[in-house]
Design brief:
single chain, 246 residues, alpha+beta, CNF1/YfiH-like putative cysteine hydrolases, six-stranded mixed sheet, four-stranded antiparallel sheet, 6 helices
């Protein structure tokens, strides 16, 4: 039974009205602790019946069931048109109505993409590995739209103050982009606090995407609204979704 109504974050970004998107929070589902309550991940150890119920609840506010992905922190982008089953990929694009793109997160950064004329949409699951490997650039490229005509929105992710990484992570980004050093502040010896949002903004800008919105949500510190793998370990997953209305 739902403990409370579902609560969504709806992107505030300058895209056509037929571009629809939302990000779920942990509120409004059937799962019990540590997955309370709207856990949408079917790979985290939650009761499958609860996950199915949660996905059915979400489907009520969508035009159709989402295209779920088997996410592996890679850079593969799947075209929603013609996709079958649960593709192994960390990004997806669509060029027509009829598909709901989705990624699951619990600290990684969900990135939404939309053409200014609504001719294409995209989504990417961007943890630090995916960002460093180029998942955002790959998604932008597969939209087949001039990057200057793409608008991006950054969803809930772990904030810099909670995201400690080692020297090797900073070195990976700085080796590709010297300016990426600005996304890291020094912490304990050999450790850095990494800013996923800044890293994503730099990658998007380098890819030619000039208008980037969203950000400012921290999954780690806001335990009332968000699941966080780094905070809790065994926990649920939120979904960020985008689709085109006909």
């Amino acid at each position: 039974m739902q403990s409370q109504p579902m609560a969504f974050i709806r992107p505030d970004w300058p895209v056509p009205a037929r571009v629809r998107a939302l990000a779920t929070t942990r509120a409004g589902g059937a799962s019990s602790a540590p997955f309370a309550s709207l856990n949408l991940g079917d790979h985290v150890g939650d009761d499958p019946a609860h996950v199915a119920q949660n996905r059915a609840l979400l489907a009520r506010v969508l035009p159709r069931a989402p295209l779920w992905l088997a996410q592996v922190h890679g850079t593969r982008v799947v075209e929603a048109e013609g996709a079958e089953g649960v593709p192994t990929a960390d990004a997806a694009v669509a060029h027509s109505a009829g598909a709901v793109l989705a990624v699951l997160t619990a600290d990684c950064l969900p990135v939404l993409l939309a053409a200014r004329d609504a001719s294409a949409i995209g989504i990417a699951h961007a943890g630090w590995r995916g960002l460093a490997s180029g998942v955002v650039e790959a998604a932008v490229a597969r939209m087949n739209v001039a990057p200057s005509r793409v608008v991006a929105w950054l969803g809930p992710a772990i904030g810099q103050g909670a995201f400690e990484v080692g020297d090797e992570v900073r070195e990976t980004f700085v080796a590709q982009d010297v300016g990426a050093g600005s996304a890291f502040t020094r912490g304990k010896p050999g450790k850095w606090q990494a800013d996923l949002e800044t890293l994503a903004r730099r990658r998007l800008a380098a890819a030619g995407v000039g208008e980037i919105h969203g950000g400012g949500y921290c999954t780690f510190t806001d335990s009332e609204r968000f699941f966080s793998f780094r905070r809790d370990g065994r926990t649920g997953r939120m979904a960020t979704l985008i689709w085109l209305e006909a």
